[in-house]
Structure formats: structure tokens, C-alpha cells
Amino acid sequence: MGGTGTVVSHFLNLSSSSSSYSPRLLAPSLSCAASTLLHSRFSLPSIRSCTSSATAAPSTSSDPITPPTPLKKRVVSGVQPTGSIHLGNYFGAIKNWVALQNTYDTLFFIVDLHAITLPYEAQQLSKASRSTAAIYLACGVDPSKASVFVQSHVRAHVELMWLLSSATPIGWLNKMIQFKEKSRKAGDEEVGVALLTYPVLMASDILLYQSDFVPVGEDQKQHLELTRDLAERVNYLYGGRKWKKLGGRGGAIFKVPEPLIPPAGARIMSLTDGLSKMSKSAPSDQSRINLLDPKDLIANKIKRCKTDAFPGLEFDNPERPECNNLLSIYQLISGKTKEEVVQECQNMNWGTFKTLLTDALIDHLHPIQVRYDEIMSESGYLDEVLAEGARNASEIADATVNNVYQAMGFLGRR
């Protein structure tokens, strides 16, 4: 979940059912339990403490009548705690989250359950999950505005996945491109069932929170399509009057989420191949700039990155993918417009430009690295952020799962 890219037109052809929801389909509000932390010596921000905007105390005749606060649309996203968070993750997902948290009701989580679909180091998973959470905060995700939590800390993710699995045709999963590619590389004996079924978990991640929008990356478009199809299928099979006859409220069980198109921007590509995206899974660390790379390592990677022999520097020349990528990284890291970068760099040689790019990267990443070290040194603070985020998320998730159990005919717990 997360990333940049365009969305195929299928996402824009919304079904009629997704535009006729009852007003009762409002998602459960976030936790209203006040949770205030003492600020640490680093002036760490307080954890989100919110009140429900779905209900209000009844007014008396002498009270002034004020309109209810409208509920914000909800956005969910997450990043796997595998490998190192790099510039592609930062500009493709996390930096966008910082802007989204000011406009939407946001939940950002560490998708550790997805991290075990391929072989992994069990001893590193917990450490990587904490590190990823700290990077979220260091990059500007504010726990007073967004719920930040670890996926496995909200058990409803797995519960809803199993319920959704019973309604997911196996043919839908067999069409998933990523499964085909990864299973072909690894071989059937080395691929677990989770690699086939994790799109259902991804659907659970989204539908669990009655999400309105999902930031969509190039490699997630097919998965969001499956999520939308699955939401509509469950709504048809178990929602409406069928659910009402079982004592439920009736109507749609799930909101059908829509793609959230991020602002148009450059896609961060590998430092060793301008035609391949920057990736955690690439075997060479030389191919990426990690957010926590020390300045000497950043300088070395930029010094050794792949370039070309053409004179001058330019964007958008298909024969110069590495040139376009490095200029794009400089544009994003400096905050300058494309025109400003062209004016500044078009006549530079590679040596001069690489020095400029290195300095810009170090200057931009240094405050993030300092903030990360502060957060990691205050383990109690990070634990509280994740615990409060999980509590907020669980309140929404549990309401959704209980509705699904009821609609599917399970005996309710007393």
C-alpha cells in the first residue's frame, strides 16, 4: 500500500451501488478516550485524542444551535517493515501522508503481516516494525492527527481476511500479476499460500476501516480493483435486506473505496538502472538512497551512480533515463520547479551536478535522521503512540467485523 502512479480508468467507472449508500453507513468514529503524554525532553508531539463527530450531546432550549461537525473522509495506507525505507517510499507514500493527515481522517500502519509472505528474518521483524514506525513520525506523520499502529496489533485484520476469503473466487487470485511473477521466480515449493492470498488481506486492511480513499501506487492498482470487487460482492451476498432480516441495520456492509490519485510527480528510479524503480528488494544497496544512510554513504552512492556520456543535463529524453531520474530526485529533494531545475542545471557537467545533488540530499535527510534518533531513544513514547493508534483503529475495526459476522449469520457473542 502506498506509492505513486496513475490509475486505470476502471477505477473511475464506479458502480451504481457505490453511489447510493444509506447515510447510516457512516464509519465508526475514532476512539474518544483522552490520551495525553508528557512531552519528552525532545518536545515530542502528543498522541491523537479525539472526540466523535458522529454524535453530540443533546441541546437544551437555551443552547445555541450549531451545525454538526462534518465527518472527514477516511484514508488508510501502510508500508512493509522489510528492508530499508528509501527515497521512493518517502516521496511515493510517506511524504504524501503528511499532507493528507491535515485534510482526511487518516490511519497509517506498519503492515507486518504482509512482510511474512516471503522468507524473512524472524529476529528482525519486531525491530524493523519499530524502526518503520519511528521513520513515519520522523518524516512528519503526527500522531495527534493520524492513527499510527502495527497491523498485527489489530486482530480484526486477520479475522476479516478469513471471512472475506470465503467470498473470494480463486480465479480472482490466480489473475494477480505479482503472484505469477514471484511464484515463477521462486518456484512452487518455495512459495507459501500467503503469497496467493495476501490480496485478500490487503482488501481486509482497506475495508476494515470503511475507507473512502486509498493512495494507489502503480503496483497496487490491480489489488484495489480486487478490493472494490470484493466489497461489492459481499454487499450483494450478505448486505441489504438479507442483513436486516438477521437483525442488522441493512444496507451496504462495506464502503466501496475509491483510488486517491497523488499529485503528479516523478517516479524515483534505481541509481543503477534508470528504467527500474527504486526498490527495497533490489539486491544491491547501491541502487537506492535509504532515509537513514549516513552522509558519507550518500556521497559515495551518488558518486558511483549510473550516468551517461551526453553533454549537458535534461529532463524527459527517453535515451537518458538516468539523467531524468537524477534531475527528478534533485527537483523533489530541493522543492524547486522543473523549470527552475532546468535553468540551474542544464549546462552542468556530471561532476558539478553530483556534488549539488549530494549536498541537497544530505541537507534534506539530516533533520529526519536526527528526529528518528530522538524517537528511537524514547522507546516509551513510541510504544504509547503505537498502543493508542491500535486502540483507535480497533474501535473502528471491531465494529466492522461484528457487522460482517452478523450479516454472514454467525451466532453473536453475549
Automatic annotation (TrEMBL):
Keywords per UniProt: Aminoacyl-tRNA synthetase, ATP-binding, Ligase, Nucleotide-binding, Protein biosynthesis
Biological processes annotated in GO: post-embryonic development; reproductive structure development; tryptophanyl-tRNA aminoacylation
Catalyzed reaction equations: tRNA(Trp) + L-tryptophan + ATP = L-tryptophyl-tRNA(Trp) + AMP + diphosphate + H(+)
SUPFAM superfamilies xrefs: Nucleotidylyl transferase
Compartment(s): Mitochondrion
InterPro entries xrefs: aa-tRNA-synth_I_CS, aa-tRNA-synth_Ic, Rossmann-like_a/b/a_fold, Trp-tRNA-ligase, Trp-tRNA-ligase_bac-type, Trp-tRNA_synthetase
CDD domains: TrpRS_core
GO cellular component entries: chloroplast; mitochondrion
Similarity comment: family membership: Belongs to the class-I aminoacyl-tRNA synthetase family.
Protein name per its UniProtKB record: tryptophan--tRNA ligase
UniProt organism field: Arachis hypogaea
